[in-house]
Specification:
The protein is mostly helical. It has helices at residues 2-10, 12-46, 66-106, 110-128; strands at 57-59, 62-64.
Length: 129
């Protein structure tokens, strides 16, 4: 069982996923700071000085923290947008690499071109007989 687990962990996909989760966590803290310290105060100013973090509704003895939810929604939208930009950038780079590989494949060596010419000449000779 330990060997199977070791084999599972050593696979590239699992390691890539682990790195992605760690980087995502660090990225999330940066975006949360961006939302809490920059965007939320700006939006609060636009809406007349509302502080989202303390925005709440009181129903009987229960305090509903709407501001925290609004802040989480803004946080999610910013993270989603940043990921969209990163994925779009990576796809652009990847497509350029694939296009370059296709162009390299299209270029034939001199030997291959010569062999194709010989093949075509032999075909023509055989058809003319």
């Amino acid at each position: 069982m330990f060997k199977e687990f070791k084999k599972f962990i050593a696979r590239g996909n699992v390691l890539d996923l682990a790195v992605g989760v760690i980087v995502g966590g660090a990225f999330s803290s940066i975006v949360t700071s961006l939302v809490n310290n920059i965007f939320t105060p700006i939006i609060g100013l636009i809406l007349g000085g509302i502080d989202f973090s303390s925005l709440s509704l009181t129903f009987r003895d229960t305090k509903i923290m709407c501001g925290a939810f609004i802040q989480s929604v803004i946080d999610f939208l910013i993270v989603a947008f940043c990921l969209f930009i990163v994925v779009k950038f990576v796809n652009k780079i990847t497509s350029k690499k694939e296009q370059k590989k296709k162009e390299e494949v299209k270029v034939k060596s001199a030997e291959l071109t010569t062999l194709e010419e010989i093949r075509d000449l032999i075909k023509n000779d055989l058809q003319n007989k």
